[in-house]
Amino acid sequence: MGDPAAVEAAVEEAVAAAARVWRILEGVADPEIPVLSVVDLGIVRAVEESEDRRGVTVTLTPTYSGCPATEVIERDVRQALATAYDDVEIRVQLSPAWTTDWLSQAGRDKLLGYGIAPPNGSAVAQHPQRDGRKPLPLLDIGAPAHCPQCGSREVEEIAGFGSTPCKALWRCVICREPFDYFKVH
Q: Residue 66 burial (CB < 10 Å; 0-12/13-18/19+)?
């Protein structure tokens, strides 16, 4: 084994390095929902700083494999990290697939404050494994807990897709305002 103090110092350095990367990433906005950072959205899977601290590798999982914002997100992450690192590598990992369960609580709160109903429930609960096979996603998108405008629980679906494929269009029965619902998946 090595010197315990040296091992502890190395661990502390690694933790500080990862914290620096995460702080930078918290400032990278999702291009489709700018109140959310890529950290809030839960698409950052891993960060790793090189031993010489001049490079960083970030692994991202898009919200779905055909998400049109993926290239923009990769570019924005690269640009943000290039302010602190000489070498930035972005990896995209599609499996396991992203789920709304990965949204942070802060992200859910920001969605609501922005007028988008956050996903209500868990993707695991709505899409459990059956006989070792995974059911098709988005068969049951759930329903918003309440209207993000007035808080009423009396809401109705208008369309299965909203402003982006990740969202459905709903309307409040009480205030009559339409709103996006971030679908559970």
A: exposed
The predicted model scores a pTM of 0.80
Q: Which of 104, 129, 126, 137 is nearest to 35 (CA)?
A: 104
CA–CA gap between residue 185 and residue 169 (Å, rounded): 16
List phi, psi (to 5°) of 49. Answer: -90, 140
HEC per residue, 19-40: HHHHHHHCCCECCCCCCCEHHH
Backbone angles phi, psi at 73, to 5 degrees: -60, -45
Residue-wise pLDDT tens digits, 14-44: 677 788 899 999 999 999 999 999 999 999 9
In the chain, the amino acid numbered 70 is: T
